[in-house]
């Protein structure tokens, strides 16, 4: 298997990469639609709608399509987003789970003293609790949510910010994600990128976005990052 050399920092997406969170997201979206007197939504639908942050997820649920209806009432959208946040918070993220191999692999990188960050489009308010809940919060030196900065993935803003903060060359950073937003952000930042096949990518194969390496299992990541001995 191909291995990257000289990696000094790894940025990870969250939903669909470290965490299978779609059951909780789908439940909150479904409750939101029903509270508004609209048809409910399924896990299968929501799986193809996530990845661009909560606003767009709710816009897609209201539109019942991956393409948000341009005629959507902004007030309805705002009300739906507030309901979604409430239901998602009240659910306590009880149905979300780490993917196989995530905890052990993160622990190995942490032991090897490779600093790591979360770069997700999920609203920042939900992220620390999720990391704590799954026992991985201590592994990350930075946690960036979808509303931490003015721009989110696929914009490379967060990756550029990390490179500047940690004084990294682009060739020293690796982005790991499951969505074309992750791949596009990494390519725009000119850093390396791994695409995972098991996550949420709008029903499209991640290989279509042409990451540097495609992996089927998170634990394979340990073989692709050559640790300096």
Would you spell out the secondary-structure blueprint of this structure?
Blueprint: E1 9-12, E2 19-20, H1 22-35, H2 43-49, H3 54-63, H4 74-90, E3 97-98, H5 102-111, E4 116-119, H6 127-133, E5 140-144, H7 157-165, E6 173-177, H8 180-189, E7 192-196, E8 213-215, H9 221-224
Parallel strand pairs: 1-4, 1-6, 4-5, 6-7, 7-8
Antiparallel strand pairs: 2-3
Helix pairs in contact: 1-2, 1-4, 3-4
Brief overview, please?
This protein is of the alpha/beta class. The protein has helices at residues 22-35, 43-49, 54-63, 74-90, 102-111, 127-133, 157-165, 180-189, 221-224; strands spanning 9-12, 19-20, 97-98, 116-119, 140-144, 173-177, 192-196, 213-215.
Report on the structure:
- Pathway: Organic acid metabolism; glycolate biosynthesis; glycolate from 2-phosphoglycolate: step 1/1.
- It catalyses: 2-phosphoglycolate + H2O = glycolate + phosphate.
- This is Phosphoglycolate phosphatase.
- 38% of the residues lie in helices and 13% in strands.
- Helix 8 links the parallel strand 6 and strand 7 (192-196).
- Strands 5-4-1-6-7-8 form a six-stranded parallel sheet, with helices on one face. The protein has a two-stranded antiparallel sheet with strand order 2-3.
- It folds into two domains: 9-21 and 96-224, 3-Layer(aba) Sandwich (Rossmann fold); 22-90, Orthogonal Bundle (DNA polymerase, domain 1).
- The chain is built from nine helices and eight strands.
- It is of the alpha/beta class.
- The mean pLDDT is 96.
């Amino acid at each position: 298997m191909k291995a990257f050399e000289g990696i000094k920092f790894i940025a990870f997406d969250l939903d669909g990469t470290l965490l299978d969170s779609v059951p909780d997201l789908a439940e909150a979206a479904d409750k939101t639609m029903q509270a508004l007197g609209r048809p409910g939504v399924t896990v299968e639908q929501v799986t193809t709608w996530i990845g661009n942050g909560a606003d767009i997820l709710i816009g897609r649920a209201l539109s019942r399509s991956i393409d948000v209806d341009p005629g959507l009432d902004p007030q309805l959208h705002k009300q739906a987003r507030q309901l979604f946040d409430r239901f998602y918070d009240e659910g306590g993220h009880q149905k979300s789970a780490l993917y196989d191999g995530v905890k052990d692999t993160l622990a190995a990188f942490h032991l090897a003293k490779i600093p790591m960050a979360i770069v997700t489009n999920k609203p920042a308010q939900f992220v620390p609790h999720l990391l704590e809940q799954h026992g991985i919060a201590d592994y990350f030196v930075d946690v960036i949510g979808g509303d931490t900065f003015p721009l989110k993935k696929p914009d490379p803003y967060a990756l550029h910010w990390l490179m500047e903060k940690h004084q990294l060359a682009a060739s020293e950073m690796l982005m790991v994600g499951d969505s074309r937003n992750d791949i596009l952000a990494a390519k725009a930042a000119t850093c390396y990128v791994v695409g995972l096949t098991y996550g949420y990518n709008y029903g499209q194969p991640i290989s279509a976005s042409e990451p540097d390496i495609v992996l089927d299992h998170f634990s394979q990541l340990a073989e692709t990052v050559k640790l300096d001995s």
